[in-house]
Amino acid sequence: MSDYVQSPISGRTMNRPLLISSLIKNAARYFSDVEIVSRMSDGTVHRYTYGDCHARAQRLANALAQLGLSIGDRVATLGWNNYRHFEAYFAIPGSGLVLNTINPRLHADQITYIADHAEAKCVLFDLSFLEQAEAIAAQCPGAATFVAMCAASEMPERTSISNLICYEDFIAAASDTYGWPEFDETAASALCYTSGTTGNPKGVLYSHRSTMIHSYAEVMPDAFNISSRDVIMPVVPMYHSNAWGLPYASALAGAKLVLPGPMMDGKSLYELIDGEGVTFSAGVPTVWNGLLDYIKARELSFTTFKRMNIGGSACPTAMMNTFRHTHGVDVIHAWGMTEMSPMGTICTLQGRHADLPEADIQTLRETQGHPVFGVDMLLLDDQGVELPWDGKTTGNLFVKGPWVIDSYFKHPVGSALEDGWLPTGDVVTINSQGYIKIMDRSKDIIKSGDEWISSIEVENIAQLHEDVHQAACIGIPHPKWGERPVLVVIARAEAEISKDDLLAFLEDRIAKWWMPDDIHFVDTIDLGPTGKVLKNKLRDRFAKVESTAT
Ligand code: ADP
After folding, report:
1. Which of 61, 238, 369, 410 would be 243's cystine partner, CB 3.0–4.6 Å?
2. In 3-state terms, what secondary structure has residue 214?
3. What pLDDT, on a 0 to 100 scale, did the predictor assign at position 544?
4. 163-176, pLDDT tens digit by residue?
5. Catalytic annotation present for 218
6. Per-residue DSSP letters for 98-129?
């Protein structure tokens, strides 16, 4: 604070702290009858309301209080998107504890690393993740209390965890009235970890203030545009980046919530979307292929589903077009990162774009959009010189804002920043209106001679071929050029596509030196714990394949 100019006169408004508990109190007070629908691991659908949720969140807060935890202590979760995890989203930070969501899809060593590094004292877990919880119990002596998020009848018959508590018993024994405490809004609220594709995961610690400002910003029309008239289905998991803030934004707006649990297949998603009247959903691109295949095979359509945010990695143009033109669902491209809570930019169109020709609108839609109010951006070259926002010049993107971290957990304050800005690791162009286009992650960009090649762009064009289900472009070491692009492709079922067909398709569409030296057809492409293509694994897999460029 000392860096700021001090005024001799302060405003005379109430200094009320921005606290997460206010979100669930608001939802219960004004939207008590609005439903929260959850698909459980056994496929059954559970439904209750914000009113019910508030009562149970208060029980959970009371039950946690009896464990003797102190304000600021971490309580970890290993959970799907379902109502019990949702209750934890409010009870834990609302009572002054810190919600440490652990991604159960991470490697076992990373899970125990996180629980240990976070110093989690208590772990709540869905039964699907019993094994991961057992590993934490065995290796993290600080984690003293384990709660299985299930009913008494579902408790595991055998487990190596001693004194395992049943969630339903745990909260049933506690009162459903709890006085949500007031504390400073800068108090920590949640601790998420990055996916750790290189090195150990790093802790990203949000505050009540950052989460609340992010929630206010997220519901805005030119952000996620969320209101009480929406039915929101977060497909993005609650164990990664707070499900892009959707649990909190939905409670703020009083929107009905549909939590899809572990079932991400096309049939399960379609049934929830159409059966529950979902209007808005959000997730990474790879998760939507199953849904598109399912509705195509059965010639189904959507009744209420109107818009979706796709981000986390670049949304293929083909996917965007199919949703929009065939199914009437507006795909809104979004970019962010865990370090940004995670919302950064959103591709909503503006009034000034109303009369643009369709081709220009399409070009705009394929960008990752403009910054949400609150996010500042800076474009620099490798030497730190500021670059123009002309939509052509590529550079390194830096950001700042009230929901952007300044350091990783247990690192010195400010240490994640360079001159006050967070380096995103993304290489982008920015146009004069502030729309960014992610060309690549700096570690995935392909450097061929003096030129660089956007792997995202090559993948995007390859995926326009109707027989290509998924494509990933990687740089393979080359003695003369440094690196050359190689394309790895999953063809659509029953498609008969050859390497020459695809090369011929690419030929007219991309620059000559961007042409992949080789194309490998494969059955699977490794995805990381958040559903993104693991390019480093692909590089290892194909590193030995000789490049043929001369
Ligand atoms: P990680 O993927 O490293 O586990 P994040 O989920 O925080 O962690 O990912 C943030 C990164 O994902 C961004 O820095 C960017 O590289 C990539 N990303 C996010 N959204 C998009 C998008 N719409 N298009 C391209 N890349 C994206």
Report:
1. 238
2. helix
3. 63
4. 999 999 999 999 99
5. no
6. EEEE--TTS-HHHHHHHHHHTTEEEEEE-GGG
The Cα 486–Cα 139 span in angstroms is 41
Residue 313 CA to ligand 1 centre (angstroms): 5
- Cα 446 to chain centroid distance, Å, stands at 25
Residues 208-230 have pLDDT tens digits of: 999 999 999 999 999 999 999 99
Beta pairing, strands 188-193 & 165-166? unpaired
SS3 letters across 339-406: HHCCEEEECCCCHHHCCCCHHHHHHHHCCCEEECCCCEEEEECCCCCECCCCCCCCEEEEEECCCCCC
Q: Minimal CA–CA distance to 117: which of 96, 139, 138, 134?
A: 139
Q: Which of 137, 99, 145 is CA-nearest to residue 118?
A: 99
Q: How far is CA 160 from CA 112, 115, 165, 169, 419, in A?
A: 16, 17, 13, 20, 49
So what's the pLDDT on residue 198?
A: 63
- DSSP character at residue 246: H
What region does 144 belong to: left with phi over 0, alpha with psi -120 to 50, or beta?
A: alpha
Q: Is the pTM of this model over 0.85?
A: yes
Q: Quote the pLDDT of residue 494.
A: 85
Annotated active-site residue in 87, 168, 339, 459: 339
Active-site residue flag, 77? no
Among protein residues, the one with the nearest Cα to ligand 1's atom 10 is 337
Give every strand in the sheet of 376-380, ordered side by side. Answer: 376-380, 395-400, 422-430, 436-441
Give kind and range of the element (H or E) at residue 296: helix 289-298
Q: How many CB atoms lie within 10 A of CB 410?
A: 11
